[in-house]
Amino acid sequence: MSEELILNEIENNTEEYIEFLRELIQAESYNPPGNEKNVALKIEKYLKNTDIKSEIFPFGENRANLIATLNNNFEGKNLLYNGHMDVVPPGNEEEWKYPPLSATIKGSKTNKKIFGRGAVDMKAGLAAMVIAVKILKKLGIKLSGNLILNAVADEETGGELGTMWCLENQLKSIKCNFAVIGEMSGMEPIGKGIAIGEKGNLHLKVITNGILGHSMMPSFSKNSINMMSEIILNLDKMDKYMPKINPPISYDRYKEIFSTLFPSKEQFERILNEQKALQVIFDAMTQFTKSFTIINAGVKENVIPDQCEAIINFRLLPCQTVEMVLYAIKKMTTEELGYEIKNEPIGNPKEVFVYFEVYQYGEGSYWQNWEESQDLKDFVDIIEKIYGKKPAYILAPGGTDAKFFRNIDYCPQTIIFGPGEALAAHTTNESIKIHDFINAIKVYTLFAYNFLK
Whole-model pTM above 0.85? Predict the structure, then answer.
């Protein structure tokens, strides 16, 4: 009866929930610089009228984390919902159909979307989690455990000031039995995914140091841009110096998992062969990847540059380490290209060398015993009930705050599930389907009720 009561409550208040999500999108929280307190204040206000205890923990310039709890009893089972309040900057706003902070609603009656930066990553998931707490409190359903809402800062720039700070300070004394990170997990044309692990994320700064000179006689100089281009063209050769690490879920195992979501294995194989996006997702979940993302060099049009600086973004499989990557790329640079490696970025005017520096690093993580969890099976059953289709178990190609829960052993049984398509994150004209958002509210609320009753 309580499940029916919950679903009726959601159906009767969808306009309120949509407006709350729009308010969160309109609250500017671009990171950098952050401004997450703008969002925290909206959440605090929304929960205030339902007697939910919420506390804002401010830091820096207009930054904050927030923790709210359904009740004050932490002796029973504790379920934790985590979502980040910061979003990436919008890029060129002139390329957006609608202003990125407008939260404009467009689309047909059955396929309406809310447009705005952070709509998918991840204010829809965060709003759905906030609403789930409010629904359970409002309905006064008797529960033996507690639901903890953790709205955090800093996820887009590493998470140490957000989730990590909360776990080391405000949440460290609370035992967590299960945690959900509300990041988007849609994978068209498959449907929903549940991430039981994630890849590591390494930003590596590379500086090539050549010899400054006049462009009219380039042979008297050493062009640092040419040096960097050699590294770019030969980057894949570092793979032979990387230790062999298998993905926690193999390509063939993924095919088995995903094929069960289709009427037949043959139909799945056909779709896999036809859908480039699906092939890319499979590759991303099973492979070590590397991409140059930023490059900068030169001081004047007629000067051969003596320094070129670039950033390489690596996505690591669980168990791959920053030490492995550094060894492999340095080995490639010396053995394949013949350049000296230095431990500092400056030298004398005639020195030719390459310098590497770890700019940012987040470990991968993996829930080893996910297949044995009844709680996870219950979560899957609720998704199937609400969305009409089973989700697929995946390794998230991108980094999330789930790594903190798993890697410090605070709560290994942490999953990632949320509204929105993964490929829509950080894009121009980012948008969330309203029915997906409402369905996520249903999933979060029903699971919390069943987990804690």
Answer: yes
